[in-house]
Amino acid sequence: MGFGPLIFFSGEYAFAKRWTGILDFDGLAGGPGRALDLAVKVRYDLTDRWGFGVGYRTLEGGVDTDDTYNIAWLNYLFLSVSYRF
pTM surpassing 0.85? Predict the structure, then answer.
């Protein structure tokens, strides 16, 4: 076990005035292990600086070798408050 680099992808799409859809992905699979972190969010901008959001995130990963088996899968909803400066 050890550290490994992950591929990162992020995208935003303004589908209506003040509403933005956001997708974030970090992940890599190969060899004996994998790591996946995927989030889908919706943000509403109250002003040019303040915004509120809601989203779903899943984290999955681990290792499966002859010596070690360790897999975790977490799913959760979240709320966010943002301030841009």
Answer: no
